[in-house]
Amino acid sequence: MKDAFGTPQSLLILGGTSEIALATARRLVARRTRTVWLAGRPSPALESAAAHLRDLGADARTVSFDALDSESHEEALGKVFAEGDIDMVLLAFGILGDQARDEGEPMAAVRVAQTNYTGAVSAGLICARALQAQGHGSLVVLSSVAGERARRANFIYGSSKAGLDAFAQGLGDALHGTGVHVMIVRPGFVRSKMTAGLAEAPMATTPEAVALAVETGLRRRSETVWVPGTLRMVMSALRHVPRPLFRRLPV
């Protein structure tokens, strides 16, 4: 169970090869976390991530999990919770897609939506129910500033994150008072393999910076975390810009 500083002893990562998630796992293992479950599609990358965490002193295990196969989520995640309490679940899977291509290939756009939103709804509800049955735990959801307002450049991805963000907010309200804490993390542009080759946005950040923000947010029992924090004010302003003007902004 979490100690007074909010550091979990056990961690389940949905999206076990996510750079942000693994940076978070490294920080938490360096503090107190001892058991880490990496859920993802079986691959050398997933096994390599688990081996790296073992080298750092964690009891790292893998479990087969496919965000697109919602019907398998109950069984896959049930196996993890059957092994013992999980103090923290980090929902970190998602795909960026290719906006230009996806606009012309609707099924590719649907895949983005099903991965980022539908899969997250399924996995999120299953984990929330298990955490509630324990009577404690944190569910940390990696959202994005892209979900704050749809932009021409990435409205397919942004809309999927908007849905995820709204879902996580509602879930947090539903679980209030149960002992389960839901925290939404809204990073800006993160320098990672997923964004390699893309033009870097202002106030870009790193997986390590997001990991630090997650750790701090857990300690403070925050409900929403912006990375970097200045994005909160920026997005608050952009949210109210009239649409005709917003279309002309280089955002």
Topology of this protein?
Elements (H helix, E strand, L loop, with lengths): L9 E5 L4 H13 L3 E6 L3 H12 L3 E6 L8 H10 L5 E4 L7 H6 L1 H29 L2 E6 L12 H21 L4 E8 L19 H14 L3 E4 L3 H8 L4 H4 L5
Parallel strand pairs: 1-2, 1-4, 2-3, 4-5, 5-6, 6-7
Keywords, separated by commas or semicolons:
globular, 251 residues, alpha/beta, 7 strands, seven-stranded parallel beta sheet, 47% helix
How would you describe this protein?
With 251 residues, this protein is of the alpha/beta class. Helices cover 47% and strands 16% of the residues. It is built from nine helices and seven strands. The protein has helices at 19-31, 44-55, 73-82, 99-104, 106-134, 155-175, 207-220, 231-238, 243-246; strands spanning 10-14, 35-40, 59-64, 88-91, 137-142, 180-187, 224-227. It has a seven-stranded parallel beta sheet, sandwiched between helices. Strand 6 (180-187), helix 7 and strand 7 form a beta-alpha-beta unit. Helix 5 runs parallel beside helix 6 (155-175). The longest helix has 29 residues, at 106-134. It is globular and about 55 Å long. It starts with 9 loop residues before the first strand and ends in a 5-residue tail after the last helix. 43% of the residues are buried. Mean pLDDT is 92; it is low at 1-5.
